[in-house]
């Protein structure tokens, strides 16, 4: 994601339409590197937010006011003093599609004389800044002070002359460069010095066309989602990010794009941070149970020799009468194998019949061990399957209600201790609904985000004749196609199977995945099993490439 020069151009175009001649009624600094102006435009409040955050610099119009510190920082006080009550008479972008917005403010000074001041918002990653300029572009103050010790190119300090740093990139970021290359039909993997003259010419034409559209204020503000998560935003259509896992959503304004993108990102980052402890716990439990299962299966394989001990005991009982101790082996016919000769090792301190008892005892011990291990293997494999399904569901969490659902499932299964103090729940917070898609044939397809939703889909939302899909023997989402008693079209079947594969534990590994599908009425809930665990005995199967979008 890059706040590039084309985005800045679209923002300036919007601001010229919506805040010109607006008066500054309030200046606040809610964060150390962020400002919020309350403007009066046609007697209505308009909120302008400017952020010089090194990670997410932006400028946009807000829909509502926010709380600010009781004590205003020094830069905020300087703005109130010099431009408070002033009128925004010009909004412009620095030449060359630079990521710089310049606001010109007309105001009355202490003597009652009319004057002008500027504040400049530089949106350049870690070099982002907001700077207040006085007469002859001399710096009055800035939200970030930059001394010669910090930068050898330019000082940003009170009393210094302001100038725009020289750049050669014209404010176009990596995403826009890749878009230009895509439109020009040039492979971005080819080094620049290996491009043909024709390829260079096509790149130049597409770059100039994009710059020309920006100068004409022709924009298409949009957010590109990858697997329904915000990936990029831009002021123009990103043809290089169309199809596959990518979908675009278009907006009426650049401000709406910026607000929506960063709000979504903020929620995503908050949920990721809050889920990190769960993720770590799950990974540790999965590793532990995987090692445990491997050991149990090895021990189970060792019990296979029990049948050998039972056979030796039977043959010694049949043919060992009258034989004394002192022998190290006993040869006899094996009537289970066409009377073939067999050699049975003996403990020379025991008679053959005593050796037979010893082998029967060993057989019984291994038989009991096998019975116990079979149960343990089943329990460990089930726990491992559930843990992997929870880990997959964690990536689909969209809010704290989803996280609570996952914690609840882990506590119910005994993977973590149940929290005795209930978590506070905001009134407006609701659990997210299952993912919803519409097939090419117009049928509704639902995908469960977690085991609780899988259970609800199977036995509450789905009718008995609807179709159910799930990756074969792989933890993942349950997928329901709402067909009722009607037929399941082949195209919808392929699409639903692809979603079941895509939202499975192996969905990102690449390669085709086998998916089972049955009428929902064929499903049976396992008594005592965790939510979302079902069995079925009659099914169809299909091999598909995994997808998370249609």
Q: Could you describe the 3D structure shown?
A:
The chain is α+β, with helices and mostly antiparallel strands and 550 residues long. It is built from ten helices and 22 strands. The strands form six sheets. A six-stranded antiparallel beta sheet has the order 15-16-18-17-19-22, with helices on both faces. The chain has a five-stranded antiparallel beta sheet with strand order 5-6-7-8-9. Strand 17 and strand 18 form a beta hairpin.
List descriptors.
elongated; alpha+beta; 22 strands; single chain; 550 residues
Can you describe this structure in just a few lines?
The chain has ten helices and 22 strands. It has 550 residues and is an alpha+beta fold.
